[in-house]
Amino acid sequence: NAGVTQTPKFRVLKTGQSMTLLCAQDMNHEYMYWYRQDPGMGLRLIHYSVGEGTTAKGEVPDGYNVSRLKKQNFLLGLESAAPSQTSVYFCASLTGGRTEAFFGQGTRLTVV
Amino acid sequence: DQQVKQNSPSLSVQEGRISILNCDYTNSMFDYFLWYKKYPAEGPTFLISISSIKDKNEDGRFTVFLNKSAKHLSLHIVPSQPGDSAVYFCAANEDYGQNFVFGPGTRLSVLP
User: Fold this and answer.
1) In whole numbers, what is the pLDDT of chain A averaged over residues?
2) Contact at CB, A100 and B46, closer than 8 angstroms
């Protein structure tokens, strides 16, 4: 019973490098989300998806892209990493409506 | 401007006593609220929720109170246990919307 799994757990990037964070859920959830957590800021929504093939911008989308080609996977891409993108990234999924979200364990990304 | 505020960054409570965590919101359209608990190096996990049609919801040691006129909710933990030491996030949702807005979190320390 894996739930929501994020890959990788840790990563260090140099400024300008690119990378993709993978989120996989095995609960057949429709909705998936990418958040970033910064000190004193709570969880801020980057992008989200309400179903396979759909994506939408959240509160802080700049510098990120996403794709949801398969229902169970939600990818977050950084095309050209910047130090301001140093953060802990969380993926979440939920069935929809008034239900709680299930979160992955997080990815700690450092951009130097 | 933050729509969901948790004005106490940290709180310390003695084991066995009551912990009260507070959350204020500014968007009067929010009508569903959740509390999540987060341990270090883990993703947030759902704790308890409340709809705006209620003013109280209980689940074991955890009770959430909602005061709609004051745009305020609180989480009560009675009795507090050392295992409750974590960061607690308040989140709000609007009219079955697809997104949840999170507060910055309160770090609770329960002292033995």
Assistant:
1) 94
2) yes
